[in-house]
């Protein structure tokens, strides 16, 4: 649906729910920004986080350096909470690692007085519904509180809420390396021959990769990071061999155009391109993987098709860098309107679906594009992109600023989206029906 046709109607507000907090799922950067924006507007908030501290998902890839500088990864409302604490703001142009981003920004933010008492750690949200109503009940739905069920050390608990913002990310639910999207048939016996995206190849996981033949699968920035780390390892450890399998005929989205407005993201693409040109990485393009089969001596046989013809490659390790998908199980009783391809909100999907739009230059958007048939329920942050890549924190911060204005009744502010995002410089599409650019 074109943006111009989207309903500009605000979600109904129910005065009898206003004593309840807004529940935010996940204390990642977007969840904490949501909480900061809500508090600024005088709305109480409760954040449930599955990990034992803020930024738990990012800590898992803490050794990776972000491609966005500090000036693009700190939310404005969060900075306004931090400033009075004497927070030592990092240099605008510096590029933090994931760990530095957590230690220098998310941890101090979560420790600010307004937020600290409102975050519940080790609280895994397992389900969201309406009090006494499954998804089939319509009468009085908007004026009925949400119920958020969590798994905690003290057992299952339930919390009522006036609204819910799900910012739980996608990091714990990776896509499959198999072309059909299912788990490998022998997943239970593959052991550590297959590993998730972004292993710490030069640090903690070095021994798993040194002197081994690794196949990296996927055509995104996670794949590029791993290829660069493996190439550095190969220069130190003889016998380290690197192959890279991608579905498309060209990794154009990784290589970039040379015109990326985020210098570090552009450099990541250029360096990866150099590895392929120099032969340090063997690119296996147009490759669809059908199964992974355990092979004697702890190796793994990767069976698939290349250009339609059967192909098999035997390697020591497979790194799954095929991206992530949203966990929708906990939202089973919520009325969602999701695009059937990318599992993002319907109005947002055409802007980010890589089949239609390859360049990653996404127009900023807010509450209008993020609304679902369920009043006052929103998915924001990385999870709002469903299976699409290219999410940027700036986008997420603008999403939750807009949602907070909506929940505060500032409807015109919620619909005024003014953010300008850095362009990738890549603007082409692999859709045969389209030629030229996608923007
Ligand atoms: C390697 C890498 C590099 C990136 N670099 C950049 C960059 O340079 N610039 C940029 O703008 N973006 C970057 N991104 C993209 C994106 O901004 C990050 O993934 C960011 O962490 C997304 O923030 P989020 O808050 O939406 O989700 P997350 O950071 O994933 O946070 C979600 C939180 O929810 C918690 N959670 C999950 N499930 C539950 C549950 N059921 N109950 C309770 N809590 C739950 C998690 O523990 C986590 O703390 C990068 C992503 C990756 C993977």
Helices and strands in order:
Layout (H helix, E strand, L loop, with lengths): L21 E4 L3 H12 L4 E4 L7 H5 L15 H7 L15 H13 L2 H4 L2 E2 L3 E7 L15 E7 L2 E7 L1 E4 L27 E3 L9 H4 L3 E5 L3 H16 L4 E5 L6 H4 L7 H16 L3 E3 L2 E9 L3 E8 L2 E7 L1 E4 L28 H4 L14 H4 L6 E3 L13 H15 L3 H5 L24
Parallel strand pairs: 1-2, 1-7, 2-3, 7-16, 8-15, 9-10, 9-15, 10-11
Antiparallel strand pairs: 4-5, 5-6, 12-13, 13-14
Helix pairs in contact: 1-3, 1-12, 7-9
Looking at the overall shape, the CATH architecture of the largest domain is 3-Layer(bba) Sandwich
Indicate the overall shape.
Answer: globular
Average pLDDT metric:
90
Query: Biggest sheet, strands in spatial order?
Result: 3-2-1-7-16
How many domain units?
2
- Strand proportion: 15-25%
Got a strand count? 16
The quaternary organization reads as: single chain
Task: State the helicity in percent bands.
Answer: 10-25%
What is the assigned CATH homologous superfamily of the largest domain?
FAD/NAD(P)-binding domain
Rounded to the nearest angstrom, the radius of gyration is: 22 Å
Gap between N and C termini, in Å?
Answer: 16 Å
The CATH topology annotation of the largest domain reads as FAD/NAD(P)-binding domain
Low-confidence stretches are: 1-8, 425-439
């Amino acid at each position: 649906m074109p943006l111009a046709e989207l309903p500009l109607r605000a979600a109904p507000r129910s005065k009898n729910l206003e004593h309840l907090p807004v529940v935010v799922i996940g204390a990642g950067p977007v969840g904490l920004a949501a909480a900061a924006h809500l508090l600024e507007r005088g709305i109480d908030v409760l954040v449930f986080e599955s990990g034992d501290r803020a930024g738990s998902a990012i800590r898992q890839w803490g050794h990776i350096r972000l491609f966005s500088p500090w000036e693009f990864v700190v939310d404005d409302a969060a900075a306004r909470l931090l400033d009075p604490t004497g927070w030592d703001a990092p240099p605008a142009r510096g590029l933090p690692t994931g760990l530095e981003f957590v230690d220098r920004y998310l941890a101090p933010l979560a420790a600010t007085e307004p937020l600290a008492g409102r975050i519940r750690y080790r609280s895994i949200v397992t389900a969201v519904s309406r009090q006494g109503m499954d998804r089939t009940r319509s009468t009085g739905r908007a004026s009925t509180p949400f119920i958020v069920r969590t798994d905690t050390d003290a057992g299952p608990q339930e919390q009522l809420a006036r609204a819910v913002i799900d910012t739980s990310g996608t990091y714990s639910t990776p896509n499959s390396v198999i072309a059909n999207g299912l788990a490998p048939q022998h997943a239970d016996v593959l052991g550590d021959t297959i590993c998730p995206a972004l292993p710490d190849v030069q640090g903690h996981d070095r021994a798993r990769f040194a002197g081994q033949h690794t196949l990296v699968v996927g055509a995104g920035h996670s794949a590029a990071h791993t290829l660069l780390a493996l190439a550095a390892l190969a220069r130190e450890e003889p016998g380290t061999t690197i192959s890279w399998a991608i579905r498309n005929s060209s990794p154009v989205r990784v290589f970039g155009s040379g015109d990326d407005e985020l210098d570090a993201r552009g450099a990541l693409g250029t360096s990866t391109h150099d590895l392929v040109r120099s032969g340090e990485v063997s690119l296996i393009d147009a490759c669809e993987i059908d199964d992974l089969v355990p092979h004697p001596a702890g190796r793994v046989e990767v069976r698939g098709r290349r250009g339609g013809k059967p192909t098999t490659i035997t390697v020591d390790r497979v790194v799954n860098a095929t991206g992530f998908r949203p966990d929708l199980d906990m939202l089973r009783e919520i009325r969602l309107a999701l695009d059937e391809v990318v599992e993002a909100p319907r109005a947002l999907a055409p802007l980010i679906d890589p089949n239609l739009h390859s360049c990653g230059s996404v127009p900023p958007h807010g509450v209008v594009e993020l609304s679902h048939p369920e009043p006052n329920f929103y998915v924001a942050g990385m999870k709002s992109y469903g299976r699409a890549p290219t999410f940027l924190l700036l986008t997420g911060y603008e999403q939750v600023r807009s949602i907070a204005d909506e929940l505060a009744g500032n409807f015109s502010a919620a619909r005024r989206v003014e953010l300008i995002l850095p362009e990738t410089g890549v603007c082409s599409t692999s859709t045969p029906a389209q030629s030229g650019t996608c923007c």
